[in-house]
């Protein structure tokens, strides 16, 4: 929004007294063409127009909201509860309570960066309901972003879009609401600390965040930390080697944190990316643990699950859009099961039942096979794992990793073409040969 600057100019009035002196020649009077007629004493500048007044009011509002957001950021980083709550409309009792609870929940979270961004050129259109609630011209809902990062773990911040309403109270602009637009697709994301008190547990290279069950958090942090060197042994150390694990209170909360409606009842954990810049070109990985499923696993199963997810974190930057899900999940399971003494009949028990019943898969799993609602989800993972394991057994681990990185780095738009090309370049085979060899291995190992 263009800034309007109102300049007030004052003009001095010139009065001239002429005194008759006999020896001094009187100067001719100035003509109208050479000197303007002086303004009468006490004349006032014309009143500012309605447009000028509106621009001045907008400028004041923008400056106050910018200062308000800066004060909120400083209060979070400085752990100043009173200053933070002073930015909230005192008439919004429910919002005050939520903001106070959020601030308190952040006490154990190592916040390294916290900064709001305001787009002054934006703003919601006229809204009769909000005019009625707050008063016409007394509310503003511009685009706002929140950038935050965890100290020692996030090199770049996560960026979320927030849908906030600011209201004018007397001569001040304050935060008036964060849920006015929930019903029309403008719901602000609710982070873990907006859903209850947060507990933090650390282990070497790991930060585990949850709500209350510290025994589970300690176990998760310990297993994730132990997974890092196992992943390094296979993938290498060309990644951050730092992991943030979030343990929600339920599968429903996990789905809400991810922003997904899929069924997570069969899934023990997921690695998900949070956008870390406005363009979406970078992302921060988080591992989210489903407590409902994870708690049913033994320690060996938990180790496999967390090593699998840490592998996803390590390989994320190399996992381009051409990498099929079976290759990404198969690699993660390969690392997860490596050096684990579990019989194949147990590790691939669901697929073994299918093979023994004559249901040998005709093709590698599609990307859609890995959705939580797939009744054959376990088989999709087992099929992928055994396909990657076959490639390692035939051609070697280093060759498998080089193949993965080549597929991930490809800029081709057709993933099937990319896969065919890279299979030929890496192993001298095509898709049909890979599937035929894989099906034969499944029959031999599980039949």
How is this structure best described in words?
With 447 residues, this protein is α+β, with helices and mostly antiparallel strands. The protein has 3 domains: 52-189, Nuclear Transport Factor 2, Chain: A, CATH 3.10.450.100; 198-317, Glutaredoxin; 319-447, Neutral Protease, domain 2. Helix content is 43%, strand content 14%. The protein is built from 15 helices and 11 strands. It has helices at residues 50-77, 81-85, 93-105, 128-134, 214-235, 251-258, 291-294, 299-315, 325-337, 344-347, 349-356, 377-395, 397-409, 415-427, 431-446; strands spanning 111-118, 139-140, 143-150, 158-163, 165-169, 172-177, 199-203, 206-210, 243-247, 269-275, 283-289. The chain has a 5-stranded mixed β-sheet. Strand 8 (206-210), helix 5 and strand 9 (243-247) form a beta-alpha-beta unit. Helix 9 (325-337) packs across helix 12, helix 12 (377-395) crosses helix 13 (397-409) and helix 13 (397-409) runs antiparallel to helix 14 (415-427). The longest helix is centred in the first third of the chain and has 28 residues, at 50-77. 30% of the residues are buried. Mean pLDDT is 88; it is low at 1-34.
List keywords for this structure.
447 residues; alpha+beta; Nuclear Transport Factor 2, Chain: A; Neutral Protease, domain 2; five-stranded mixed β-sheet; 43% helix; disordered N terminus
CATH superfamily placement of the largest domain: NTF2-like, domain 1
Biggest sheet record: 5 strands, mixed
Global mean pLDDT: 88
Q: Mind telling me which CATH architecture of the largest domain this is?
A: Roll
Radius of gyration: 33 Å
What is the number of helical segments per DSSP (H or I, 4+ residues)?
15
């Amino acid at each position: 929004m263009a800034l309007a600057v109102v300049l007030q100019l004052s003009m001095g009035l010139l009065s001239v007294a002429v005194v008759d002196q006999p020896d001094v020649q009187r100067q001719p009077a100035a003509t109208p063409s050479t000197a303007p007629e002086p303004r009468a004493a006490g004349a006032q500048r014309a009143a500012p127009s309605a447009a000028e007044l509106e621009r001045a009011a907008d400028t004041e509002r923008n400056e106050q909201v910018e200062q308000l957001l800066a004060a909120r950021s400083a209060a979070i980083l400085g752990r100043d509860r009173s200053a933070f709550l002073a930015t909230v409309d005192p008439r919004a009792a429910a919002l005050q309570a939520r903001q106070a609870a959020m601030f308190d929940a952040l006490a154990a979270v190592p916040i390294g960066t916290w900064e709001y961004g305001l787009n002054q050129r934006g703003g919601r259109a006229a809204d009769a309901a909000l005019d009625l609630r707050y008063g016409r011209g007394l509310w503003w809902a511009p685009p706002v972003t929140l950038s935050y990062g965890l100290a020692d773990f996030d090199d770049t911040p996560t960026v979320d879009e927030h849908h906030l309403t600011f209201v004018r109270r007397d001569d001040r602009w304050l935060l008036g609401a964060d849920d006015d637009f929930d019903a029309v697709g403008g719901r602000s994301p609710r982070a873990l600390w907006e859903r209850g008190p947060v507990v933090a547990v650390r282990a070497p290279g790991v930060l585990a965040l949850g709500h209350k069950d510290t025994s589970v958090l300690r176990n998760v942090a310990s297993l994730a930390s132990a997974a890092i060197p196992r992943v390094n042994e296979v993938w290498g150390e060309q990644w951050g080697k730092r992991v943030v694990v979030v343990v929600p209170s339920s599968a429903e909360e996990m789905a809400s944190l991810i922003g997904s409606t899929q069924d997570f009842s069969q899934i023990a954990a997921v690695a998900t990316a949070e956008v870390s810049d406005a363009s979406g070109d970078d992302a921060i990985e988080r591992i989210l643990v489903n407590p409902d499923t994870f708690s049913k696993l033994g320690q060996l199963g938990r180790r496999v699950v967390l090593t699998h997810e840490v592998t996803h974190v390590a390989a994320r930057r190399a996992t381009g859009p051409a990498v099929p899900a079976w290759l990404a999940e198969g690699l993660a399971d390969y690392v997860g099961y490596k050096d684990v003494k579990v019989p194949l009949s147990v590790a691939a028990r669901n697929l073994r039942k299918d093979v023994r019943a004559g249901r040998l898969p005709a093709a590698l799993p599609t990307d859609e096979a890995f959705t939580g609602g797939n009744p054959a989800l376990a088989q999709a993972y087992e099929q992928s794992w055994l396909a990657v394991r076959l490639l390692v057994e035939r051609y070697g681990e280093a060759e498998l990793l080089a193949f993965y990185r080549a597929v991930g780095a490809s800029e081709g738009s057709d993933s099937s073409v990319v896969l065919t090309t890279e299979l030929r370049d890496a192993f001298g085979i095509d898709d049909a040969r890979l599937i035929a060899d894989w099906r034969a291995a499944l029959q031999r190992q599980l039949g």
